Amino acid sequence: MVKSELSKKIKKLKLLGFDVDGVLTDGNIYIDGINPEIKQFNTKDGYGIEVALKNGIQVALISGRVSKAVSFRAKELGIEFVFQGIKNKKIILNELKKKLGFKKEEVSFMGDDIPDLKLKSEVGLFVSPFDAIQLVKDNSDYVVSKCGGRGAVREWIDIVLLSKGII
């Protein structure tokens, strides 16, 4: 379980932001020569996202890559805020916070690599999967026990929902 100081911060969250490759997926990109790429998503992560959204917690995906698979999965899960091909994730996150009227303390972001770490100063809680690069893990407010694409997103969402008394 999370410490009480962390739990207090989690209770304030209204927006959960996620990188895609290495967080929502295992970071592998499958290329078969026919399709541009194939990605594998975890159904438990997907269900967690659906539960968060149904309980009024916003979810955003901010990815440096562009993928039709991500667009398809996001639509399937009902994720409204999907940003792909983003080189400066900080600008997009700050625009989204402004649009939604959320303060820094009301936002978390889960990332696994250096471009994501640049968002730490823009969120109340920066989270990483267990298999994030060491620099990111060392600078995270919380590291989940699951790897990217293997339940990391679901674990974080469950922690948030439990802290808020939703589940």
Q: Enumerate the strands of the largest sheet in spatial order, edge to edge or round the barrel.
A: 3-2-1-4-5-6
Count of β-strands: 6
Number of domains: 1
SS content category: alpha/beta
Which word captures the global form? globular
Beta-strand percent range: 5-15%
Helical amount among residues, as a percent range? 25-40%
CATH architecture: 3-Layer(aba) Sandwich
Name of the CATH homologous superfamily: HAD superfamily/HAD-like
What order do the helices and strands follow?
Answer: HEHEHEHEHEHEH
Q: Enter the CATH topology name.
A: Rossmann fold
| C-alpha Rg (nearest Å) | 15 Å
User: Which sheet architecture does the biggest sheet show?
Assistant: 6 strands, parallel
Tally of DSSP helical segments: 7
What's the CATH class label? Alpha Beta
